Amino acid sequence: MVPGNTDAKLPAVFRLLFPVIAGVPLGPLLTLSLRSLAGREPRLFERLGEHRSACYFIDPIDLAFAFTVVPDGERSIVRVVRKSETATSSVQIRGPILTLLSLLDGTLDGDALFFSRIISISGRTEAVLALRNTIEDAELRPADLLGLRGALARLVDTGILGALGIARQLADPNSRRKAPEA
Amino acid sequence: MTSGRMELVCPAGTPATLRAAVQAGADAVYCGFRDETNARNFPGLNFSGEELAEGVRFAHDHGSKVLVAINTFARVNDVVLWKRAADMAAECGANAIIAADIAVLDHVAKNHKQVRLHLSVQAAAATPEAIGFYATSFGVRRVVLPRVLSVQEIAALNRAIDVETEAFVFGGLCVMIEGRCYLSSYATGKSPNLNGVCSPPEMVSYDDEPSSTAARLSGFTIDRYEPGEPVGYPTLCKGKFKAGDKTSYLFEDPVSLNAGGMIAGLKAAGVTALKIEGRQRGKGYVTEVVRAFRKAVDAVEQGGDAIEIDRILAGQSEGSRQTAGAYSKKWR
To answer: What is the ipTM of this complex?
Structure first.
Protein backbone atom coordinates (compact mmCIF):
# COMPACT_ATOMS: atom_id res chain seq x y z
CA MET A 1 0.00 0.00 0.00
CA VAL A 2 2.46 2.62 -1.21
CA PRO A 3 1.01 5.83 -2.67
CA GLY A 4 1.89 6.68 -6.25
CA ASN A 5 4.37 9.54 -5.96
CA THR A 6 6.62 8.23 -3.20
CA ASP A 7 9.78 8.03 -5.29
CA ALA A 8 9.33 11.50 -6.74
CA LYS A 9 12.56 13.49 -7.11
CA LEU A 10 12.73 17.11 -6.08
CA PRO A 11 11.68 19.35 -9.00
CA ALA A 12 14.39 21.54 -10.52
CA VAL A 13 12.72 24.73 -9.29
CA PHE A 14 13.13 23.57 -5.67
CA ARG A 15 16.64 22.21 -6.27
CA LEU A 16 17.68 25.69 -7.40
CA LEU A 17 16.89 26.95 -3.91
CA PHE A 18 19.38 24.61 -2.28
CA PRO A 19 22.60 26.46 -3.15
CA VAL A 20 21.03 29.37 -1.25
CA ILE A 21 20.10 27.09 1.66
CA ALA A 22 23.58 25.57 1.58
CA GLY A 23 24.95 28.99 2.57
CA VAL A 24 22.83 28.86 5.76
CA PRO A 25 24.35 27.10 8.79
CA LEU A 26 21.83 24.29 8.39
CA GLY A 27 23.56 21.86 10.78
CA PRO A 28 23.61 24.23 13.80
CA LEU A 29 20.03 25.35 13.09
CA LEU A 30 18.73 21.79 12.93
CA THR A 31 20.76 20.87 16.02
CA LEU A 32 19.18 23.75 17.91
CA SER A 33 15.75 22.77 16.67
CA LEU A 34 16.16 19.11 17.72
CA ARG A 35 17.54 20.04 21.16
CA SER A 36 14.70 22.46 21.68
CA LEU A 37 12.19 19.73 20.71
CA ALA A 38 13.87 17.39 23.24
CA GLY A 39 13.45 20.06 25.93
CA ARG A 40 9.73 20.29 25.20
CA GLU A 41 9.06 16.60 24.46
CA PRO A 42 11.63 14.49 26.35
CA ARG A 43 9.37 11.41 26.17
CA LEU A 44 9.68 11.37 22.41
CA PHE A 45 13.40 10.60 22.63
CA GLU A 46 12.98 8.03 25.41
CA ARG A 47 11.36 5.72 22.87
CA LEU A 48 14.71 5.46 21.08
CA GLY A 49 16.23 3.81 24.16
CA GLU A 50 19.90 2.94 23.69
CA HIS A 51 19.70 3.97 20.03
CA ARG A 52 19.55 7.67 20.84
CA SER A 53 23.36 7.65 20.76
CA ALA A 54 23.44 6.02 17.31
CA CYS A 55 24.66 8.11 14.38
CA TYR A 56 22.15 8.14 11.51
CA PHE A 57 23.48 9.08 8.07
CA ILE A 58 20.59 10.52 6.06
CA ASP A 59 21.21 10.94 2.36
CA PRO A 60 18.58 12.78 0.31
CA ILE A 61 19.59 11.38 -3.08
CA ASP A 62 18.36 14.42 -5.00
CA LEU A 63 20.44 16.90 -2.98
CA ALA A 64 24.17 17.49 -3.16
CA PHE A 65 24.77 16.92 0.56
CA ALA A 66 23.74 14.58 3.35
CA PHE A 67 23.16 14.80 7.10
CA THR A 68 24.33 12.91 10.14
CA VAL A 69 21.97 12.95 13.09
CA VAL A 70 22.64 11.79 16.64
CA PRO A 71 19.16 12.09 18.22
CA ASP A 72 20.38 12.16 21.80
CA GLY A 73 17.70 14.41 23.31
CA GLU A 74 19.10 17.73 24.48
CA ARG A 75 22.56 16.58 23.36
CA SER A 76 21.40 15.92 19.78
CA ILE A 77 23.74 16.84 16.94
CA VAL A 78 22.88 17.40 13.28
CA ARG A 79 25.69 17.93 10.79
CA VAL A 80 25.62 18.63 7.08
CA VAL A 81 28.17 16.30 5.54
CA ARG A 82 29.49 15.08 2.22
CA LYS A 83 27.79 12.02 0.75
CA SER A 84 30.97 10.03 1.20
CA GLU A 85 31.11 10.60 4.99
CA THR A 86 29.44 7.38 6.07
CA ALA A 87 32.30 5.86 8.06
CA THR A 88 31.23 7.04 11.51
CA SER A 89 27.53 6.29 11.07
CA SER A 90 25.68 3.28 12.49
CA VAL A 91 22.89 3.49 9.96
CA GLN A 92 22.57 4.85 6.43
CA ILE A 93 19.17 5.91 5.07
CA ARG A 94 18.84 7.02 1.45
CA GLY A 95 15.85 8.30 -0.50
CA PRO A 96 14.34 11.30 -2.29
CA ILE A 97 14.12 14.33 0.01
CA LEU A 98 10.34 14.66 -0.37
CA THR A 99 9.91 11.03 0.64
CA LEU A 100 12.19 11.46 3.65
CA LEU A 101 10.24 14.54 4.72
CA SER A 102 6.99 12.60 4.32
CA LEU A 103 8.36 10.00 6.73
CA LEU A 104 9.03 12.72 9.25
CA ASP A 105 5.53 14.18 9.14
CA GLY A 106 3.93 10.71 9.03
CA THR A 107 2.42 11.14 5.56
CA LEU A 108 4.08 7.90 4.41
CA ASP A 109 4.79 4.59 6.09
CA GLY A 110 8.49 3.78 6.49
CA ASP A 111 7.96 0.01 6.31
CA ALA A 112 6.16 0.19 2.99
CA LEU A 113 8.80 2.53 1.55
CA PHE A 114 11.64 0.27 2.62
CA PHE A 115 10.09 -3.01 1.56
CA SER A 116 9.24 -1.52 -1.85
CA ARG A 117 12.84 -0.17 -2.04
CA ILE A 118 11.86 3.47 -2.46
CA ILE A 119 14.16 4.22 0.44
CA SER A 120 17.24 2.11 1.15
CA ILE A 121 18.65 1.33 4.55
CA SER A 122 21.89 -0.26 5.63
CA GLY A 123 23.65 -0.70 8.95
CA ARG A 124 22.14 -1.62 12.31
CA THR A 125 18.56 -2.74 11.66
CA GLU A 126 17.57 -2.38 15.32
CA ALA A 127 18.56 1.31 15.32
CA VAL A 128 16.53 1.91 12.14
CA LEU A 129 13.52 0.18 13.68
CA ALA A 130 13.80 2.23 16.87
CA LEU A 131 13.94 5.45 14.83
CA ARG A 132 11.05 4.39 12.62
CA ASN A 133 8.84 3.55 15.62
CA THR A 134 9.79 6.78 17.38
CA ILE A 135 8.92 8.89 14.35
CA GLU A 136 5.67 6.94 13.89
CA ASP A 137 4.58 7.82 17.40
CA ALA A 138 5.85 11.40 17.39
CA GLU A 139 3.33 12.76 14.84
CA LEU A 140 5.66 15.69 14.22
CA ARG A 141 4.51 18.81 12.40
CA PRO A 142 6.93 21.41 11.01
CA ALA A 143 5.93 23.81 13.80
CA ASP A 144 7.00 21.23 16.41
CA LEU A 145 10.52 21.26 15.01
CA LEU A 146 10.52 25.05 14.98
CA GLY A 147 9.15 25.28 18.52
CA LEU A 148 6.08 27.25 17.49
CA ARG A 149 2.64 27.17 19.10
CA GLY A 150 -0.87 28.50 18.58
CA ALA A 151 -1.97 30.42 15.51
CA LEU A 152 1.58 30.93 14.25
CA ALA A 153 2.20 27.16 14.43
CA ARG A 154 -0.96 26.48 12.43
CA LEU A 155 0.05 29.10 9.86
CA VAL A 156 3.57 27.66 9.49
CA ASP A 157 2.26 24.07 9.28
CA THR A 158 -0.22 25.06 6.59
CA GLY A 159 2.46 26.94 4.66
CA ILE A 160 5.19 24.30 4.84
CA LEU A 161 2.93 21.29 4.34
CA GLY A 162 1.20 23.11 1.49
CA ALA A 163 4.56 23.83 -0.16
CA LEU A 164 5.59 20.20 0.29
CA GLY A 165 2.31 19.11 -1.26
CA ILE A 166 2.92 21.34 -4.27
CA ALA A 167 6.50 20.03 -4.56
CA ARG A 168 5.21 16.44 -4.48
CA GLN A 169 2.64 17.22 -7.13
CA LEU A 170 5.25 18.87 -9.34
CA ALA A 171 7.57 15.93 -8.80
CA ASP A 172 4.97 13.29 -9.62
CA PRO A 173 4.95 12.57 -13.36
CA ASN A 174 1.51 10.95 -13.08
CA SER A 175 0.04 14.01 -11.46
CA ARG A 176 1.60 16.25 -14.16
CA ARG A 177 0.11 14.09 -16.87
CA LYS A 178 -3.29 14.22 -15.19
CA ALA A 179 -3.20 17.99 -14.66
CA PRO A 180 -4.70 19.10 -18.01
CA GLU A 181 -7.76 16.90 -17.45
CA ALA A 182 -8.46 18.44 -14.05
CA MET B 1 -23.38 -19.20 18.33
CA THR B 2 -22.62 -15.69 19.50
CA SER B 3 -25.76 -13.67 20.02
CA GLY B 4 -24.18 -10.22 20.42
CA ARG B 5 -22.28 -8.01 18.02
CA MET B 6 -18.80 -9.30 17.20
CA GLU B 7 -15.94 -7.30 18.72
CA LEU B 8 -13.16 -5.98 16.48
CA VAL B 9 -9.81 -6.26 18.30
CA CYS B 10 -7.04 -4.16 16.76
CA PRO B 11 -3.28 -3.81 17.26
CA ALA B 12 -1.40 -0.82 18.66
CA GLY B 13 2.39 -0.67 18.94
CA THR B 14 2.51 2.96 20.02
CA PRO B 15 0.17 5.49 21.66
CA ALA B 16 -0.34 7.22 18.29
CA THR B 17 -1.42 3.92 16.74
CA LEU B 18 -3.75 3.23 19.66
CA ARG B 19 -5.50 6.54 19.03
CA ALA B 20 -5.61 5.83 15.29
CA ALA B 21 -7.13 2.36 15.84
CA VAL B 22 -9.76 3.72 18.21
CA GLN B 23 -10.67 6.50 15.82
CA ALA B 24 -10.87 4.04 12.93
CA GLY B 25 -13.50 2.02 14.77
CA ALA B 26 -11.76 -0.58 16.96
CA ASP B 27 -14.00 -2.02 19.69
CA ALA B 28 -10.85 -3.01 21.55
CA VAL B 29 -7.15 -2.33 21.14
CA TYR B 30 -4.41 -4.66 22.31
CA CYS B 31 -0.92 -3.51 23.22
CA GLY B 32 2.03 -4.37 25.43
CA PHE B 33 4.75 -2.92 27.62
CA ARG B 34 8.18 -1.92 26.37
CA ASP B 35 9.97 -5.08 27.53
CA GLU B 36 10.12 -8.82 27.01
CA THR B 37 6.75 -9.45 28.68
CA ASN B 38 4.99 -9.25 25.33
CA ALA B 39 5.43 -11.03 22.03
CA ARG B 40 6.20 -7.93 19.94
CA ASN B 41 9.31 -6.76 21.72
CA PHE B 42 10.84 -4.55 19.01
CA PRO B 43 13.01 -1.46 19.65
CA GLY B 44 11.00 1.74 19.88
CA LEU B 45 7.71 -0.13 20.08
CA ASN B 46 5.19 -0.53 22.91
CA PHE B 47 4.10 1.43 25.96
CA SER B 48 5.45 2.76 29.24
CA GLY B 49 3.09 2.62 32.25
CA GLU B 50 2.30 6.30 31.86
CA GLU B 51 1.56 5.91 28.15
CA LEU B 52 -0.71 2.94 28.82
CA ALA B 53 -2.69 4.88 31.44
CA GLU B 54 -3.18 7.72 28.95
CA GLY B 55 -4.08 5.24 26.20
CA VAL B 56 -6.68 3.55 28.41
CA ARG B 57 -8.23 6.92 29.25
CA PHE B 58 -8.36 7.84 25.57
CA ALA B 59 -9.87 4.48 24.56
CA HIS B 60 -12.47 4.54 27.34
CA ASP B 61 -13.43 8.13 26.51
CA HIS B 62 -14.16 6.90 22.97
CA GLY B 63 -16.02 3.76 24.03
CA SER B 64 -13.20 1.29 23.27
CA LYS B 65 -11.48 -1.25 25.52
CA VAL B 66 -7.78 -1.88 26.06
CA LEU B 67 -6.38 -5.41 26.32
CA VAL B 68 -2.78 -5.71 27.51
CA ALA B 69 -0.67 -8.55 26.15
CA ILE B 70 1.65 -10.00 28.80
CA ASN B 71 1.95 -13.12 26.77
CA THR B 72 5.53 -14.32 26.76
CA PHE B 73 6.69 -16.99 29.22
CA ALA B 74 8.42 -15.93 32.43
CA ARG B 75 12.00 -16.99 33.01
CA VAL B 76 12.87 -19.52 35.67
CA ASN B 77 13.20 -17.77 39.06
CA ASP B 78 12.39 -14.42 37.46
CA VAL B 79 8.62 -13.99 37.38
CA VAL B 80 8.81 -10.54 38.96
CA LEU B 81 8.90 -8.60 35.68
CA TRP B 82 5.78 -10.39 34.41
CA LYS B 83 3.90 -9.93 37.69
CA ARG B 84 4.85 -6.26 37.80
CA ALA B 85 3.59 -5.83 34.22
CA ALA B 86 0.25 -7.39 35.21
CA ASP B 87 0.02 -5.12 38.27
CA MET B 88 0.74 -2.08 36.11
CA ALA B 89 -1.86 -3.08 33.50
CA ALA B 90 -4.44 -3.43 36.26
CA GLU B 91 -3.48 -0.07 37.81
CA CYS B 92 -3.82 1.59 34.39
CA GLY B 93 -7.41 0.37 34.10
CA ALA B 94 -6.89 -2.19 31.35
CA ASN B 95 -10.05 -4.13 30.55
CA ALA B 96 -8.23 -7.43 30.12
CA ILE B 97 -4.82 -9.05 30.33
CA ILE B 98 -3.86 -11.48 27.59
CA ALA B 99 -1.55 -14.11 29.06
CA ALA B 100 -0.24 -17.59 28.38
CA ASP B 101 2.10 -18.39 31.26
CA ILE B 102 0.38 -20.20 34.13
CA ALA B 103 2.31 -18.10 36.67
CA VAL B 104 1.00 -14.87 35.09
CA LEU B 105 -2.56 -16.23 34.80
CA ASP B 106 -2.43 -17.33 38.46
CA HIS B 107 -1.10 -13.94 39.60
CA VAL B 108 -3.85 -12.03 37.78
CA ALA B 109 -6.57 -14.45 38.92
CA LYS B 110 -5.54 -14.06 42.57
CA ASN B 111 -4.66 -10.37 42.70
CA HIS B 112 -6.69 -8.57 40.02
CA LYS B 113 -10.12 -10.13 39.98
CA GLN B 114 -11.61 -7.03 38.32
CA VAL B 115 -9.47 -7.55 35.20
CA ARG B 116 -10.68 -10.05 32.63
CA LEU B 117 -8.24 -12.78 31.66
CA HIS B 118 -7.87 -13.69 28.01
CA LEU B 119 -5.82 -16.73 27.09
CA SER B 120 -3.14 -15.77 24.57
CA VAL B 121 -2.72 -17.62 21.30
CA GLN B 122 0.74 -18.40 22.70
CA ALA B 123 -0.91 -20.96 24.99
CA ALA B 124 -2.05 -22.84 21.87
CA ALA B 125 -5.19 -24.09 23.60
CA ALA B 126 -7.41 -25.70 20.97
CA THR B 127 -9.34 -28.42 22.76
CA PRO B 128 -12.28 -28.21 25.18
CA GLU B 129 -10.13 -29.94 27.80
CA ALA B 130 -7.25 -27.47 27.57
CA ILE B 131 -9.56 -24.45 27.49
CA GLY B 132 -11.62 -25.92 30.33
CA PHE B 133 -8.48 -26.21 32.44
CA TYR B 134 -7.64 -22.53 31.99
CA ALA B 135 -11.26 -21.48 32.59
CA THR B 136 -11.64 -23.56 35.74
CA SER B 137 -8.22 -22.85 37.20
CA PHE B 138 -7.87 -19.13 36.45
CA GLY B 139 -11.29 -17.89 35.42
CA VAL B 140 -10.19 -17.23 31.83
CA ARG B 141 -13.08 -15.52 30.03
CA ARG B 142 -11.82 -15.64 26.46
CA VAL B 143 -9.43 -17.76 24.46
CA VAL B 144 -7.53 -16.47 21.44
CA LEU B 145 -7.64 -19.41 19.05
CA PRO B 146 -4.51 -20.81 17.41
CA ARG B 147 -4.51 -20.28 13.66
CA VAL B 148 -4.68 -24.00 12.96
CA LEU B 149 -8.42 -24.58 13.22
CA SER B 150 -11.01 -24.72 10.44
CA VAL B 151 -14.30 -22.83 10.81
CA GLN B 152 -16.07 -26.17 11.37
CA GLU B 153 -13.63 -27.08 14.14
CA ILE B 154 -14.15 -23.67 15.76
CA ALA B 155 -17.92 -24.20 15.66
CA ALA B 156 -17.53 -27.60 17.32
CA LEU B 157 -15.16 -26.13 19.91
CA ASN B 158 -17.56 -23.32 20.73
CA ARG B 159 -20.36 -25.81 21.31
CA ALA B 160 -18.18 -27.60 23.86
CA ILE B 161 -16.89 -24.64 25.91
CA ASP B 162 -18.47 -21.79 27.81
CA VAL B 163 -15.82 -19.10 27.34
CA GLU B 164 -15.63 -16.58 24.52
CA THR B 165 -13.40 -17.21 21.50
CA GLU B 166 -11.35 -14.71 19.53
CA ALA B 167 -10.12 -15.53 16.02
CA PHE B 168 -7.41 -13.88 13.93
CA VAL B 169 -8.77 -12.52 10.65
CA PHE B 170 -5.94 -10.47 9.18
CA GLY B 171 -2.15 -10.08 9.25
CA GLY B 172 0.90 -12.26 9.79
CA LEU B 173 0.73 -16.00 10.20
CA CYS B 174 2.77 -18.14 12.56
CA VAL B 175 3.26 -21.76 11.65
CA MET B 176 1.63 -24.50 13.67
CA ILE B 177 2.10 -24.23 17.46
CA GLU B 178 2.00 -20.49 17.85
CA GLY B 179 5.28 -18.80 18.63
CA ARG B 180 7.12 -21.93 19.73
CA CYS B 181 9.78 -21.56 17.12
CA TYR B 182 12.75 -23.79 17.69
CA LEU B 183 14.12 -22.68 14.31
CA SER B 184 14.37 -19.13 15.61
CA SER B 185 15.85 -20.24 18.95
CA TYR B 186 18.46 -22.29 17.10
CA ALA B 187 19.39 -19.53 14.66
CA THR B 188 19.44 -16.59 17.04
CA GLY B 189 20.06 -18.15 20.44
CA LYS B 190 16.96 -16.35 21.69
CA SER B 191 13.56 -17.90 22.24
CA PRO B 192 10.62 -15.96 20.77
CA ASN B 193 8.52 -17.16 23.71
CA LEU B 194 10.90 -15.72 26.29
CA ASN B 195 12.17 -12.62 24.49
CA GLY B 196 9.09 -11.68 22.53
CA VAL B 197 10.50 -11.56 19.02
CA CYS B 198 11.30 -14.30 16.51
CA SER B 199 13.66 -12.28 14.28
CA PRO B 200 15.51 -9.93 16.66
CA PRO B 201 16.38 -6.83 14.60
CA GLU B 202 19.91 -6.68 15.99
CA MET B 203 20.50 -9.96 14.15
CA VAL B 204 18.90 -8.86 10.88
CA SER B 205 20.96 -7.55 7.98
CA TYR B 206 20.28 -6.61 4.38
CA ASP B 207 23.44 -7.14 2.38
CA ASP B 208 23.79 -5.72 -1.11
CA GLU B 209 25.64 -8.18 -3.33
CA PRO B 210 26.57 -7.92 -7.02
CA SER B 211 23.29 -9.25 -8.43
CA SER B 212 20.95 -9.32 -5.45
CA THR B 213 20.20 -8.20 -1.91
CA ALA B 214 20.46 -10.91 0.74
CA ALA B 215 18.22 -10.71 3.82
CA ARG B 216 19.94 -12.50 6.67
CA LEU B 217 19.10 -13.45 10.22
CA SER B 218 22.04 -14.13 12.48
CA GLY B 219 24.19 -14.79 9.43
CA PHE B 220 21.75 -17.27 7.85
CA THR B 221 20.52 -16.19 4.41
CA ILE B 222 16.73 -16.23 4.59
CA ASP B 223 15.96 -14.88 1.12
CA ARG B 224 17.50 -13.08 -1.86
CA TYR B 225 15.90 -10.32 -3.86
CA GLU B 226 16.59 -9.15 -7.41
CA PRO B 227 17.36 -5.43 -7.90
CA GLY B 228 14.09 -3.51 -7.61
CA GLU B 229 12.15 -6.51 -6.26
CA PRO B 230 10.25 -5.75 -3.03
CA VAL B 231 12.08 -7.10 0.01
CA GLY B 232 10.67 -8.68 3.16
CA TYR B 233 11.66 -8.87 6.82
CA PRO B 234 13.64 -12.09 7.19
CA THR B 235 11.54 -14.62 9.09
CA LEU B 236 12.84 -18.18 9.23
CA CYS B 237 9.53 -19.94 8.66
CA LYS B 238 8.96 -17.89 5.50
CA GLY B 239 12.51 -18.17 4.17
CA LYS B 240 13.61 -19.64 0.88
CA PHE B 241 15.95 -22.61 1.37
CA LYS B 242 17.60 -25.27 -0.71
CA ALA B 243 16.68 -28.88 0.08
CA GLY B 244 18.15 -31.45 -2.25
CA ASP B 245 18.31 -29.74 -5.62
CA LYS B 246 15.25 -27.61 -5.10
CA THR B 247 15.11 -24.06 -3.74
CA SER B 248 11.70 -23.18 -2.32
CA TYR B 249 9.82 -21.70 0.59
CA LEU B 250 10.48 -24.85 2.54
CA PHE B 251 8.27 -24.27 5.59
CA GLU B 252 5.64 -21.74 4.56
CA ASP B 253 4.98 -19.41 1.64
CA PRO B 254 5.44 -15.72 2.55
CA VAL B 255 1.71 -15.08 2.64
CA SER B 256 -0.39 -13.26 5.19
CA LEU B 257 -3.80 -14.12 6.55
CA ASN B 258 -6.96 -12.53 5.20
CA ALA B 259 -10.09 -14.20 6.49
CA GLY B 260 -12.27 -11.20 5.71
CA GLY B 261 -14.46 -13.39 3.55
CA MET B 262 -15.12 -15.66 6.51
CA ILE B 263 -16.43 -13.10 8.99
CA ALA B 264 -20.00 -14.33 8.57
CA GLY B 265 -18.86 -17.94 8.92
CA LEU B 266 -16.89 -17.15 12.06
CA LYS B 267 -19.89 -15.38 13.54
CA ALA B 268 -22.06 -18.39 12.77
CA ALA B 269 -19.38 -20.58 14.38
CA GLY B 270 -19.88 -18.66 17.62
CA VAL B 271 -16.76 -16.49 17.58
CA THR B 272 -17.08 -13.44 19.87
CA ALA B 273 -14.15 -11.34 18.67
CA LEU B 274 -12.12 -10.87 15.49
CA LYS B 275 -8.46 -10.00 15.82
CA ILE B 276 -6.21 -8.08 13.46
CA GLU B 277 -2.51 -8.90 13.79
CA GLY B 278 0.18 -6.21 13.42
CA ARG B 279 1.39 -4.34 16.50
CA GLN B 280 4.64 -3.70 14.61
CA ARG B 281 2.79 -1.93 11.78
CA GLY B 282 2.46 1.83 11.37
CA LYS B 283 -0.61 3.91 12.13
CA GLY B 284 -1.39 4.48 8.43
CA TYR B 285 -1.62 0.74 7.85
CA VAL B 286 -3.60 0.15 11.06
CA THR B 287 -6.05 2.94 10.23
CA GLU B 288 -6.68 1.57 6.75
CA VAL B 289 -7.12 -2.06 7.81
CA VAL B 290 -9.26 -1.27 10.88
CA ARG B 291 -11.49 1.05 8.88
CA ALA B 292 -12.09 -1.63 6.23
CA PHE B 293 -12.76 -4.38 8.77
CA ARG B 294 -15.04 -2.07 10.76
CA LYS B 295 -17.18 -1.63 7.66
CA ALA B 296 -17.05 -5.34 6.86
CA VAL B 297 -18.02 -6.43 10.39
CA ASP B 298 -20.85 -3.89 10.48
CA ALA B 299 -22.06 -5.12 7.09
CA VAL B 300 -22.03 -8.74 8.34
CA GLU B 301 -23.92 -7.71 11.47
CA GLN B 302 -26.53 -6.08 9.26
CA GLY B 303 -26.86 -9.18 7.10
CA GLY B 304 -24.68 -8.03 4.19
CA ASP B 305 -23.84 -10.63 1.57
CA ALA B 306 -20.43 -12.05 0.63
CA ILE B 307 -20.14 -9.84 -2.47
CA GLU B 308 -20.56 -6.70 -0.40
CA ILE B 309 -17.95 -7.89 2.13
CA ASP B 310 -15.48 -8.74 -0.68
CA ARG B 311 -15.97 -5.28 -2.17
CA ILE B 312 -15.31 -3.57 1.19
CA LEU B 313 -12.11 -5.56 1.76
CA ALA B 314 -10.84 -5.58 -1.84
CA GLY B 315 -8.19 -2.93 -1.16
CA GLN B 316 -6.65 -4.97 1.64
CA SER B 317 -5.21 -7.62 -0.68
CA GLU B 318 -3.19 -5.16 -2.75
CA GLY B 319 0.50 -5.92 -2.99
CA SER B 320 0.80 -9.06 -0.88
CA ARG B 321 -0.08 -12.71 -1.22
CA GLN B 322 -2.84 -13.77 1.10
CA THR B 323 -4.52 -16.90 2.35
CA ALA B 324 -7.54 -17.88 4.39
CA GLY B 325 -5.15 -20.24 6.19
CA ALA B 326 -6.51 -23.15 8.15
CA TYR B 327 -10.01 -21.64 8.27
CA SER B 328 -10.65 -23.35 4.95
CA LYS B 329 -8.47 -26.44 5.27
CA LYS B 330 -8.38 -28.36 2.04
CA TRP B 331 -6.03 -31.09 3.12
CA ARG B 332 -8.49 -32.82 5.39
So the answer is: 0.85
